[in-house]
Amino acid sequence: MKYINAEKINNLLSKAVNTDQRALDAILKKSRALKRLTLAESAALLAVNDPESIQKIFSAANSVKEEIYGRRIVLFAPLYISNLCANNCLYCAFKADNPLIKRKALTVPEINHQVEWLLGRGHKRILMVCGEGAPEAKSNIDYYLQAVEAIYAAGVGKHKIKRVNVNCAPLAASEFKRLKESGIGTYQVFQETYHEETYRRMHPKGPKSDPDNRIDAVDRAFTAGIDDIGIGVLYGLYDYRFETLGLLSHIEHMEEKFKVGPHTISVPRIEPAEGAQLSFNPPSKISDEEFKKVVAVLRLSVPYTGIIMSTREDPLLRDTLLSLGVSQISAESSTSPGGYSASAEEQAGGQFSLGDHRSLDEIVGTLIAHDYIPSFCAACYRMNRTGESFMQLAKPGTIKGKCKMNALITLKEYLDDFASVSVRDAGSKMITRYLKQLDPPEQAKLREFFNHVEKGLRDEYV
Ligand code: SAM
Ligand code: SF4
């Protein structure tokens, strides 16, 4: 597979088992200073298994995360627009050969309906997701563009979606350019597995069967002007240590070629998917303990990159992972096209089953209870703080001042417009607590924003 040197990864992994305590401490010290780790250093962390050293890794990951992002957690909802697919990924319910699920590509009015539902709950950020297919008479890209336009056009009172990120199949460079022009934020594409033989076995049919075309999607998107890119591994297909070093090798390639790493890393684990036998018994299942270590090692290895956790994971584990480096989470999700609607006709087959069924309000309440500030902010993207200019703020940890301000403004908006009584009370106390921690000029600025919110103004940011 392009950009991935499997032999080098295997050598690093075998050497890493001999890392002694002193070397481990030196790596963690480097990480706490917010420096990028080398592949060998990341391999050393992945080799750690004794509980005491694992705790050291967890505590370093927590402090790096706080240093870069502070205590804000960004919330979003996935919106599945279509489950039509030309591929046959062995782990996914949308695979072409699966006769068990009802197929559907949402129409513009249906998309509008779904977005209105999400807006009505308080969501402001959407991750648009789809299979590699479009309704008849539309090319994939034309369908995707139509959907992005429909999402931004939907509105409920003064509420609109602020940012649409997209997770769709790789496109040609000219199509990526059109996608960028439609106003999307991050483009996500997961390599799934960085182990070539496994990749070929898992993707036997369709355009996705070529691993190099998929890994090159990142380069094509970047060259076409999309400078916020999300990458990821689908954990469970192959050894988690190899996969993590594969992902980190991919990041090294991006940094070398574009001087910018990924905006986000996603760490989905395989969940049961109707009609996809492999998903019920993944070949390289990763345990909760190993998974926590992976998240912490990623946080330490690439301090400046956001880590996304979806509702695939259960509430308890999701809450733990927040302290290890996760910076964005989805809430109250559905993986079915039409899944947010009450009408049975609009609903189609889901991609996989979810582990977290809490409402957005409950998740906001839990975040507040754990002293994390729920954030609905999309300011960076609107202020053109993307790609390299975002990295320049993220790398030294200066983004967190802006993140905190914007998180508190958007939390105040959420509390006033959508929250239950108990969440509103807890959130108001949080706001007062955080306000007191700011220096006087910042306090004054934030109070002014809060006054605006109380007068009905929405969507202000710094
Ligand atoms: N169809 C496009 C593609 O495959 O790139 C984009 C969207 S696909 C619906 C999004 C992601 O879902 C895939 O990249 C894969 O990592 C993940 N996925 C597929 N099946 C899954 C399963 N059974 N459990 C968890 N995640 C899964
Ligand atoms: Fe299609 Fe994506 Fe599912 Fe593969 S993972 S079957 S490409 S929707």
Fold blueprint:
Layout: H1 6-16, H2 21-32, H3 39-47, H4 51-69, E1 72-82, H5 108-121, E2 125-130, H6 140-153, E3 155-156, E4 159-160, E5 163-167, H7 173-181, E6 187-188, H8 196-202, H9 211-223, E7 229-232, H10 240-258, E8 264-266, H11 288-301, E9 306-309, H12 315-322, E10 328-330, H13 360-369, E11 373-375, H14 379-382, H15 387-394, H16 399-417, H17 421-437, H18 440-454
Parallel strand pairs: 1-2, 1-10, 1-11, 2-5, 5-6, 6-7, 7-8, 8-9, 9-10
Antiparallel strand pairs: 3-4
Helix pairs in contact: 1-3, 1-10, 2-4, 3-10, 3-11, 4-11, 4-16, 5-6, 10-11, 13-17, 16-17, 16-18
Short description:
The protein has 462 residues and is an alpha/beta fold.
Description:
With 462 residues, the protein is an alpha/beta fold. The chain folds into 2 domains: 66-392, TIM Barrel, CATH 3.20.20.70; 399-454, no CATH class. The chain has 18 helices and 11 strands. The strands form 2 sheets. It has an 8-stranded parallel beta barrel with strand order 1-2-5-6-7-8-9-10, surrounded by 6 helices. Strands 3-4 form a two-stranded antiparallel ribbon. α4 crosses α11 (288-301), α16 packs antiparallel against α17 and α16 (399-417) runs parallel beside α18 (440-454). The two termini are 42 Å apart. The mean pLDDT is 92. Bound molecules: S-adenosylmethionine and iron/sulfur cluster (SF4). S-adenosylmethionine is lined by residues 91-92, 129, 131-132, 167-169, 189-190, 192, 234, 268, 270-271, 273, 279, 312, 351-352.
